[in-house]
What we know:
This protein is an alpha+beta fold. It is built from three helices and eight strands, in the order βαββββββααβ.
Amino acid sequence: GGLAGVEGQGIRIEAEGAFDPIAVNDLIHELRNAGAEAIAIDDIRITARSIAVLGTSAIEVDGVPIGPSFEIAAIGSPDGLQAAIERPGGILSLYEQSIDARFVVTPVEHLVLPATERDLMPAAARPVE
């Protein structure tokens, strides 16, 4: 859920290009669908409440601006994650063609992702006892 830092194997994606918030959100969803157990963008832990939006001067994730170059770390099966996002006709090839983006995907044996800094207390729900 993002409340604790985690470590494990996975992939690191160095991304550079003319991204919009929809492209960043789609990339996060693609990693989740590929089996990522935890994701961070530039050390911002992605949770179920995280969303990329257009801020006043840059794309923001959880209120933190990210630049035109950013790094995504995803914990999960390195082979599975890499195969899913680099598949022919997949999200990376689509972005490389449509928004002039460049990616370097690297399998990593040991990643450490931080806990979220967001308050994840529900606004409407409360625990059942």
